[in-house]
Design a protein that fits this description.
The chain has ten helices and ten strands. With 303 residues, it is an alpha+beta fold.
Length: 303
């Protein structure tokens, strides 16, 4: 049972709705200010088509989802400039978007397929006439965590993902109003907050008492073969995960369905002469990647 307030300014707005999931997040409807994009009828829309929500499912799964064009009854005019304005805004700072996504475990996919290697390409070039590959089936999501959770295992991660995705949502909403949005400046502030000098950066390595046993167990793991590990660049990392459809090439677990943390693995390890060439890279989950390490040169991709 989900309690829905719609519209939220009316006292009688509360209603009980049978739903398999609980949704809580940010969306918007503005009757006083029409938006710059049109519906298929040719009328200007008054409902924002972007939403950013926490989702909790009956099986105890917790995740955060951004749907750039998530409302099924909002369809944009193909001739409208709104899509191009959004894509252009993302193109200008796509490296920073990818950095924030990679550091927060955020990924995105279409309902049944994935053909683009960055978010701006996916929004601008996806075929509108294809129900399953169109921009309307685009989802941007955090890893999925299952109850029971703790402050530093699940709850903090989805909160962090929500904060990371908010500037992108805010840019979509602001552009829809016909205004400019300083997306790059907001992403710079977010990067400082999370990775450089902000409050989160100063606290990110702290552990609560309930998490200390888990941390101790991690410290006891000896992985000498990873001591010389170097990260590949964010754009290439993103491209490989997109190519392999955000799924582990070994066990088949996916970031979307299972909340699996994916790594980009070198088929031929660097220590044995392997390069960062795309043909030498594959997506593996944490468990499969650790199991393989650099002991063999197994190519686990489907041929």
């Amino acid at each position: 049972m989900t309690i829905v307030y719609r519209p939220n300014h009316r006292k009688e707005a509360m209603s009980n709705v049978d739903s398999e999931s609980v949704f809580m997040g940010v969306s918007g409807k503005r009757h006083q200010q029409k938006l710059i994009f049109r519906r298929k009828s040719g009328q200007y829309a008054s409902i924002h088509c972007s939403s950013l929500i926490y989702e909790i499912y009956p099986d105890g799964a917790l995740t955060v989802v951004l749907q750039p064009f998530g409302y099924g009854y909002v369809r944009l005019d193909q001739d409208n400039n709104y899509i191009k304005l959004i894509a252009d805004s993302l193109y200008k700072c796509i490296d920073k978007v990818e950095k924030i996504f990679s550091e927060n475990g955020i990924s995105y996919t279409f309902t049944h397929n994935f053909t683009y290697t960055n978010l701006a390409d996916a929004i601008l070039n996806s075929p509108e006439e294809d129900e399953y590959l169109s921009r309307y089936s685009l989802y941007i999501f955090s890893p999925t965590y299952y109850f029971p959770t703790s402050r530093h295992r699940g709850l903090w991660e989805v909160k962090r993902a929500f904060v990371a995705l908010y500037p992108i949502l805010d840019s979509f909403i602001t552009i829809a109003k016909g205004q400019t949005y300083p997306l790059e400046m907001m992403l710079d502030k977010l990067i400082d907050y999370q990775f450089t000098k902000g409050w989160y950066f100063s606290r990110r390595k702290e552990w609560t008492d309930e998490d200390k046993p888990f941390k101790k167990a991690q410290d006891e793991i000896n992985l000498p073969e990873l001591e010389s590990y170097q990260f590949i660049r964010a754009g290439l990392w993103w491209e490989i995960l997109a190519r392999d459809k955000w799924t582990c090439c070994s066990c088949g677990r996916s970031a979307k369905e299972h909340g699996t943390t994916l790594h980009v693995d070198h088929i031929v390890p660097r220590s044995k002469g392997g390069t960062d060439n795309k043909e030498n890279l594959q997506a593996l989950c944490w468990k499969c990647n650790i199991g393989k390490s650099n002991k063999d040169m197994t190519d686990l991709r489907d041929k």
